[in-house]
C-alpha cells in the first residue's frame, strides 16, 4: 500500500473527532460533509466505486442538504409582539427602547446560533393565545398593554416565554432594568400569567 492511503485513512478518525466536538451546527454540518468526502475517497482508492458513489451522493450530498434545511428551520426563536408596539404613532422613545430590546435579544441568541423572528399580532388576546397554542416561543408586552394591576412594577417590558431553556438563556445573558422575564404559558381569563 502507498503511504498516502495511510494518511487518508488517518483523516477519518481525526475528522470524526472534530465532528463530535463541534458546538456550532453549521460547522458540524460542514465537517460532516468533509467526513463523507474522505470516506468516498477511501472507497474509491480501495476499488469500491459503487460504494464510493453511494457515499458521495446519499451520505454526503443528500444528507448534508437535508440537515442544512432542518437546521435552518429549527434554530428560530419566534417572539410575538403587538403591531402598535412598532407603529409610527407610538412614541419615539418607546420605539427606540423596543428596538434596543430586540437588538439585545438578537445578540444573545446569535451566541447560541439561534435566529430571532418577530411575529406581530393585532391584539393582546391573540398574542397571549399564540403563546398558549405554541405558535410563538415568547411574547413581549409593554406595561400599558398588561394593565397596571397585572404589570410588574417598575418594568417597561415584560417578556414571557413558554420554554424553560429559553428562559434560562435570557435570564443568564440579558441585563436590563426595563425588562422583566417570566416563564409560563397559561393565562387566566383576564390575561394574567398563571
Automatic annotation (TrEMBL):
The keyword Transmembrane applies. It holds the Pfam family MbhD. It is a multi-pass membrane protein. It is found in: Cell membrane. Coiled coil: none annotated. Signal peptide: none annotated. Its main location: membrane. The chain crosses the membrane at residues 6-22, 29-49, 61-81. Keywords: Cell membrane, Membrane, Transmembrane, Transmembrane helix. Residues 11-73 form the MrpA C-terminal/MbhD domain. GO terms for cellular component: plasma membrane. This is DUF4040 domain-containing protein. It comes from Synechococcus elongatus PCC 11801.
Amino acid at each position: 500500500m502507498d503511504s498516502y492511503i495511510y494518511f487518508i485513512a488517518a483523516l477519518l478518525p481525526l475528522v470524526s473527532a472534530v465532528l463530535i466536538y463541534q458546538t456550532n451546527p453549521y460547522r458540524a454540518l460542514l465537517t460532516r460533509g468533509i467526513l463523507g468526502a474522505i470516506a468516498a475517497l477511501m472507497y474509491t482508492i480501495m476499488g469500491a466505486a459503487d460504494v464510493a458513489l453511494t457515499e458521495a451522493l446519499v451520505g454526503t450530498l443528500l444528507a448534508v442538504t437535508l440537515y442544512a434545511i432542518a437546521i435552518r428551520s429549527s434554530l428560530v426563536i419566534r417572539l410575538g409582539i403587538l403591531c402598535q408596539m412598532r407603529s409610527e404613532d407610538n412614541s419615539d422613545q418607546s420605539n427606540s427602547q423596543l428596538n434596543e430590546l430586540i437588538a439585545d435579544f438578537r445578540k444573545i441568541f446569535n451566541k447560541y446560533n439561534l435566529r430571532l423572528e418577530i411575529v406581530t399580532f393585532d391584539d393582546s388576546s391573540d398574542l397571549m393565545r399564540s403563546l398558549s397554542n405554541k405558535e410563538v416561543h415568547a411574547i413581549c408586552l409593554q406595561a400599558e398593554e398588561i394593565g397596571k394591576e397585572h404589570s410588574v412594577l417598575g418594568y417597561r417590558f415584560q417578556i414571557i416565554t413558554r420554554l424553560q431553556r429559553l428562559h434560562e438563556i435570557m435570564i443568564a445573558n440579558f441585563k436590563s432594568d426595563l425588562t422583566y422575564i417570566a416563564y409560563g404559558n397559561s393565562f387566566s381569563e383576564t390575561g394574567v400569567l398563571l
